[in-house]
Write a structure and sequence with these properties.
single chain, mainly alpha
Length: 96
């Protein structure tokens, strides 16, 4: 929100009062909950994949490179899937 205020104030010539009023009126608890939950889930997934593939590494330096690539790909796919499900859960709560 602070970054948005900088852009709005310096580049869009909005007053601070106009910007903060529109931000607070548009902000929902759902947004705050997602913003706090997703980073923790993603950090857990990234660290879990890094540990899993890192501890199973064999084959010297080539194995380390291969394990790193596999960990990044697996974490990216899992984050993509988890983003879908987390968003689906939070959006379904808003609609009903």
């Amino acid at each position: 929100m602070f970054g948005g205020w900088i852009i709005a104030f310096f580049f869009l010539n909005l007053t601070g009062r106009q910007y903060w009023h529109s931000v607070w009126s548009a902000l929902e608890w759902n947004d705050v909950a997602q913003g706090l939950l997703k980073p923790f889930v993603f950090a857990f997934v990234i660290s879990l994949m890094g540990c899993y593939y890192g501890l199973r590494t064999t084959g010297g330096t080539q194995g380390v490179g291969r394990a790193t690539t596999q960990a990044v790909v697996a974490a990216s796919v899992l984050i993509f899937i988890l983003t879908f499900f987390i968003t689906k859960i939070f959006v379904s709560q808003v609609v009903t």
